[in-house]
UniProtKB/TrEMBL annotation, chain A:
GO cellular component, one term: cytoplasm
Domain named Iron-binding zinc finger CDGSH type: residues: 31-69
An MF annotation (GO) of this entry: 2 iron, 2 sulfur cluster binding
UniProt cross-references to Pfam families, sorted A to Z: zf-CDGSH
UniProt keywords, alphabetically: 2Fe-2S, Iron, Iron-sulfur, Metal-binding
Gene3D superfamilies, alphabetized: CDGSH iron-sulfur domain, mitoNEET-type
Key word Iron present: yes
Keyword check for Iron-sulfur: yes
The protein, known as: Iron-binding zinc finger CDGSH type domain-containing protein
TrEMBL record, chain B:
Lineage: Bacteria, Bacillati, Actinomycetota, Actinomycetes, Micromonosporales
Residue numbers spanned by region Disordered: 328-348
Domain of life of the native organism: Bacteria
InterPro entries per UniProt: Haem_Oase-like_multi-hlx (IPR016084)
Protein name: Iron-containing redox enzyme family protein
Residues spanning the membrane: none
Amino acid sequence: MTHEPAQERRAATVTPYEDGPLLLRGDFEIVTPDGEHIDAGRPTVALCRCGRSRIKPFCDGTHKLIGFRAPADRQPTRPDPSDAEQL
Amino acid sequence: MRLPEARGDLSAAVIEGLRSGQAVEVAHLPKLRDTDPLADEDLQLALTVCYELHYSGFEDVDDRWEWHPGLLALRAEMEQLFERALRALTGPQPAVGAAEIPAALTALTAEHDGPSLGRHIQSHATIEQFREFVVHRSLYQLKEADPHTFAIPRLAGRAKAALIEIQIDEYGSGRLPRMHAELFRTTMSCLGLNTEYGAYLDRLPATTLAVTNMLSMFALHRRLRAALTGQLAAFEMGSSLPNSRYANGLRRLGGDSRATLFYDEHVEADAVHEQIAAHDMCGSLVAEHPELSADVLFGAAASEALGGRASAHLLDSWAAGASSLRPVTGPGSAGRLPETQLPAGVAS
Ligand code: FES
Ligand SMILES: [Fe+2]
Ligand SMILES: [Fe+2]
């Protein structure tokens, strides 16, 4: 049996979960705009995308209390008349 | 851990059998009574003793009892009653497609208004009540994640990978100080509690034992692996919000960041785990095995129901001005809780 060189961590991936956070996996680092390191604490993290977490940038489950809705895929861009009014 | 005190004929037969080393003869065991198996002190303790042989065992018991045919036959009878009662409590579950599994789990685990242990602990619990709460949770939390590890060889593909992704985090990525069971041990010692596994077993009522027994039953039967995944998803999905309340409650009572770390960690970790559990583990399992969908939901519903009963017992006892733990039996200080307040900032 040959010894493989230590495997590189896989490139980072971001996965939107339906009505919930973004899961970040792989070789990532979270930094402030000034470049300060933010401790992720674990190999896979959940980033808040509902805006209401009390431990941002991480998710704390609050999205469930506020009925946050968002798809797991790219939100379809379709012309919506109500959008046009707001513009 | 040492063998507990018996609570009736059934647990006495099991405990005495183990202690004396005499073969347990199913035929000679007392007839199983038809009380509510989920609240039966005797039955739930006997089950706990049988299951603990598969985890860390008992100091005063020969390890070979784990696979003793007579004891396993008796356990099977008890499990039949237990599972039947759990299925009756939760009712039949619908067969849903893989894509609907996360939504079905979310619906089963949604928070409702009304009395909640988390809200009571956050705003009102006394330090004595907080200690009791921790004692109730200790039988599971000191072996946190262990029951679910039994499911790893019983899953395959994406569901297996998802379970492992969760378990790696539960076990602190293999670093002992980050292991969730160790964080719980730290919280216990900050509260002045005995961190030895099973130290408080005699004080835990059937409603508390039933939760851990359910995990062990699901974990030790491959047939029930889908229920175990559903149960884990329900645990994870009902965790972040209550844990933030437990952390706040402990801070209010003077707990420092070391004492509250177990709860703070779970707010963040379980927000990750719940997504992986519902979508990647349960969703993938049902995509691969559509026939398992009802069992996934059964596991989640059973977890919610038993967890709710266990919490209600604490709230009801406290509302009546009583302790939620069984009284201390026998001489000595074993199983006694400290009576001191938690001095602010001294917990470290
Ligand atoms: S996405 Fe979970 S709290 Fe915002
Ligand atoms: Fe955990
Ligand atoms: Fe978890």
